[in-house]
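Example record

The entry below shows one chain as it appears in the dataset: sequence first, then structure tokens.
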Amino acid sequence: MKSEAPSLPAALAAATEHQPRSRLALSAALTSGPAHAYLFRGPRGSGKRAAARAFAAEILATGASDPGGARRRALLDPSPHPDFAWLAPRGAQHLVEEVREQVIRAAVYRPFEGERRVFVIEQAEAMREESQNALLKTLEEPPAFAHLMLLSAEPEALLETIVSRCQQVVFARLPAAAAVAALASAGEPDEVEAAARLAHGDLELARFLLGEQGRALRRQAGAFAAAAVDPDAGGAPWAALLDGAEAVGSDAEDATRQRLEEAEHGTRRRPSREVNEEARRAGRRRRTEVLDLGLELSAAWLRDLSAVAEDAAEVVLARDRIDELRSQAAGVDPGRARRCVELVQDTRRRLDLNVSEELALEALFFRLQGTLAGAPV
């Protein structure tokens, strides 16, 4: 069977290189004519953003007096193309007024150039229900020239009425080998491979793990798990995980506040109270995400200890720290280590119930310590 990849525009082919389902769907859409609404769904770092931009560029090039120029401008980030709107949340959520002004109301105006307009809503799950309900009419009765794309890693957070009105383009996690190739210049080979494995193909997460804050979080998570292996460990090893998450959340809050203030330069300014509250929400959300990631990394470390204890080093995720794992795995019962992984995952679920984080992590640590020592749980 002849491959369809050569006939695909270069940018779209590159964006969907490891996504055969989405490549097939978008290739078919270009052949038959694009629909008016799409939901690009799949995990973070799977290429949704790049694919949406490349697909939008082809839509805008169709019927343009200068297709090549329209395509080039659409591929720029941010794009200067007047018929291309890309809406990303500046804080924890999309602002209702921005969805209304930049998408819903703007979609009724005819294109400035060419024949079509494209509107992309990134992190669509961050739209409030009010925004989603307001968007329904645009999805139900779109102008003939308007095309909407919703990008979401959590489509279950979208209203079913929204999802049902969109053609779905599905993205899967990148294969580990593809993630390693994409991150080759971000660190030493062993560290890059470890980050790609720990991130399960999520490029954004892998890049975070290869940065200063991500490296620190890996050390904190490993130290937390390692302390549980030592029956004589004292202190509060869970505190570093909490402090690390707090630091990342604080940085996210500051960055969001600055972004909000810069975006409003020259326009009607929102009250400082609203800006600060939006920034705090973004910081809290990022802090929660990083604390959960820290626990996930702790579970991965315990999983790796179990693998090393069973002489199965080939399945270890943290390949760059194999010597450290071998040292800690001496005397560790693999079955107990696997039970500890379950305890960590149970704590992650409990944190969703708004329990005290410090108390939950303290209780988890002593349960891990007891389990590894052979005490009944």
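Notes for this example: The chain has two domains: 5-170, 211-372. The two ends are 57 Å apart (CA to CA).
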